[in-house]
Design a protein that fits this description.
Layout: H1 3-12, H2 15-18, H3 21-46, H4 52-83, H5 95-164, H6 166-199, E1 207-211, H7 212-223, E2 229-233, E3 238-242, H8 243-259, E4 266-274, E5 278-285, H9 315-325, E6 330-335, E7 339-347
Helix pairs in contact: 1-5, 3-4, 4-5, 5-6, 7-8, 8-9
């Protein structure tokens, strides 16, 4: 904090108030705000160029910063009022103190105006961030949709090639055709994942009462879980939400557990626990586990484990985006060779 400002504030306060803990906390808050203001503004500018997932986190951070600065402005106004009383209260104060006091009030008022300007600029950046985020989603949606048509044509051509020239291809040729088909299927899954990811925020909420016991059971059937993996659905609640989004959420988490199962006797548990502020869900498996180095990036778009060549790297980012859509939180706990548990929370009222 500016030493002169701090000294003037202390000088103008009664002696019994100068060393109060709450005053020291206030002075520190003002000082921290000034010290970090430039860095915070640069972070805001940088947020204009970051990814969609980071944009969401930046939006949250900026909103919190705006709220903190609003509180700071209120406290600054209180200081201005305390050091700039009515003229009738100044009769016994020396003229030099009047000047210092007026100067101090003007100084603080000027700083408050600067904070207001920064706050307005941050609000403007928030709107620009939201617009860029929407444009990013729209672009991904359009490009992915346009890619589907040529992909279907390639799949058809490869299929005809295999049928018409089956005898001429030979073993090696057939293997190459099968490899092309495998990559086409992976590309199709990737495009569909991008479409799903970019559509989460755009779709209107079509909320209905959902019995999660039935929904999860139906999802397990859709996944065609191998007989070597047992899925235990514990008692789950009924919630009101968008059925498609919630099914996407469980389908991606359960599919991830199935894909990463390396045990002969695999087990997946789906658990729900009631909390004061909502519901906590757990998807627990005894699969190969995830190394702690990947915890921080596993929910990012296109991030996948190094040894997972079949993954599109989008499934878990879709999960996180859906959880964020409902103002929930998601995290994981995992140990290599022992298994993984994904936790996520949803509020009581979605």
């Amino acid at each position: 904090m500016n030493p002169l400002l701090k000294r003037q504030i202390r000088k103008l306060l009664p002696e019994d108030l100068r060393d109060r803990e709450d005053l020291q906390a206030f002075l520190k808050a003002v000082g921290d705000s000034y010290d970090n203001l430039e860095d915070q503004f640069k972070m805001t500018q940088r947020a204009m160029t970051i990814s969609s997932d980071e944009l969401f986190e930046a939006n949250q951070s900026l909103r919190e910063e705006s709220e903190q600065q609003q509180k700071l402005l209120e406290r600054l106004q209180a200081v201005i009022n305390s050091v700039n009383p009515q003229k009738g209260d100044l009769e016994d104060v020396e003229s030099i103190q009047d000047i210092e006091q007026g100067s101090l009030a003007d100084y603080i008022s000027n700083q408050a105006e600067q904070l207001i300007a920064v706050n307005k600029n941050q609000e403007r950046l928030l709107k620009e961030l939201a617009l860029q985020n929407q444009e990013l989603n729209d672009y991904a949606h359009i490009v992915s949709h346009d890619l589907k048509s040529p992909l279907r044509s390639i799949e058809a051509l490869v299929s005809w090639l295999k049928e018409d020239y089956e005898n001429e291809l030979g073993t090696a040729g057939k293997q190459q055709i099968d490899l092309i088909v495998t990559h086409l299927e992976k590309m199709d899954a990737l495009i569909q994942g991008i479409l799903s990811y970019s559509s989460i925020d755009k779709e209107d909420r079509k909320e209905h009462a959902i019995d999660l016991n039935k929904l999860v059971a139906e999802t397990v059937e859709l996944l065609h879980v191998p007989s070597s993996i047992k899925v235990k659905i514990h008692t789950l609640p009924t919630i009101t939400a968008d059925r498609f989004k919630i099914q996407q959420l469980f389908q991606n988490l359960l599919g991830n557990a199935v894909d990463n199962m390396d045990k002969v006797n695999g087990r997946i548990d789906v658990i729900a626990r009631k909390l004061d502020q909502g519901i906590q869900f757990e998807i627990k498996d005894n699969g190969k586990g995830i190394h702690r180095d990947y915890f921080g990036k596993i929910f990012q778009v296109f991030q996948k484990l190094e040894d997972d060549s079949l993954s599109t790297g989008i499934g878990l980012s879709i999960v996180k985006k859906i959880v964020n859509f409902y103002d929930g939180t998601i995290w994981l706990d995992s140990e290599v060779d022992k298994g993984t548990t994904f936790y996520f929370t949803l509020p009581k009222t979605l």
